[in-house]
Each structure stands twice: as C-alpha cells, then as structure tokens.
C-alpha cells in the first residue's frame, strides 16, 4: 500500500487540500467587506464542504489499493471535484471589486496534477497486472 507511488501522490493531494483551509486563495475588497478580506476554504460553506470531500476522497482512495478500477474512478472523481471547487472559487472571486490572487491559489492546480499522477500510476499498475496475467 505505502510502497506504491500513487499512495504518495494521493497523500500529497490530501495534504495540499487540507492546506487550503489555512492559506488564502484570494484577497480583496467587495461590497460586503469594505476592508481587505481573504478568501480561503473555511470562509464559504459550500467551498468548505467540497474541500473536505476532496481531502477525504484522496485519503480514502489510498486504502483501496486492492481495487484498482475503483481507485482509478475515484481519482477521476477527485479531479472533477477539484475542477468544480476551482469554478466555485472563481464565482466567489467575481463578487470582488478589487483584489489579487494569492500565491497559495496554486495549491488547487497542484491537487489536480497530483490526482492525475496518481491515476497515471494506477493505470500503469493495472497494465502491469494484465501483462503478467497474460504471461501465465
């Protein structure tokens, strides 16, 4: 389980998703908050739930190492959920009149990339098992 590289990618994706609670995605000024306001995963309830789901999905997928097909589907689901999360951040940011993206906004792109790397590694494992079954 731990010796497989996709476990490392999924663990890093879970850690990166949990870091989005601490670090802001965007800081700016809107009509509701006339002072500088920082947007992170803990500020908006739907974003909070989706971030928890992505982090939990990445952690749970690690332990499904015996069922590679399900693990692959969950990685694809993680990519789709993270894309939805990025879209929700985009919609939240559009309500601001002035502001800038934070450096930590790159975490969301990293999460998508880590899910992609995990899916690629799972696919390699699946091909290796099929090839070894064919040789028997």
Break the fold down into its secondary structure elements and pairings.
Layout: H1 5-19, E1 26-29, E2 37-39, H2 45-62, H3 68-93, E3 98-101, H4 106-135
Antiparallel strand pairs: 1-2, 1-3
Describe the structure.
The protein is mainly α and 136 residues long. The chain has one domain (5-135): Butyryl-CoA Dehydrogenase, subunit A, domain 3. Helices cover 65% and strands 8% of the residues. It has a 3-stranded antiparallel β-sheet with strand order 2-1-3, with no helix packed on it. A hairpin with a 7-residue loop joins β1 and β2. α1 (5-19) runs antiparallel to α2, α1 (5-19) runs antiparallel to α4 and α3 (68-93) packs antiparallel against α4 (106-135). The two termini are 24 Å apart.
What is the number of domains?
1
Q: Decide which structural class fits the backbone.
A: mainly alpha
Please give the share of residues in helix: 55-70%
Largest pleated sheet: 3 strands, antiparallel
pLDDT under 50 segments (min length 5)? none
How is the largest sheet built, in terms of strand order? 2-1-3
CATH domain topology = Butyryl-CoA Dehydrogenase, subunit A, domain 3
Helices, by number, come to 4
CATH class: Mainly Alpha
């Amino acid at each position: 389980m731990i010796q497989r590289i996709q476990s490392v990618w999924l663990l890093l994706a879970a850690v990166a998703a949990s870091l989005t609670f601490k670090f802001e995605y965007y800081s700016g000024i809107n009509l509701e908050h006339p002072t500088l306001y920082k947007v992170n995963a803990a500020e908006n309830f739907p974003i909070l739930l989706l971030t928890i789901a992505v982090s939990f999905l990445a952690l749970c997928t690690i332990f499904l190492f015996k069922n590679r097909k399900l693990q692959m589907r969950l990685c694809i689901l993680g990519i789709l959920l993270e894309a939805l999360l990025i879209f929700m951040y985009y919609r939240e940011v559009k309500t601001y009149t002035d502001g800038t993206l934070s450096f930590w906004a790159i975490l969301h792109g990293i999460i998508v990339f880590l899910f992609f790397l995990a899916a690629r590694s799972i696919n390699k494992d699946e091909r290796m098992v099929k090839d070894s079954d064919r040789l028997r």
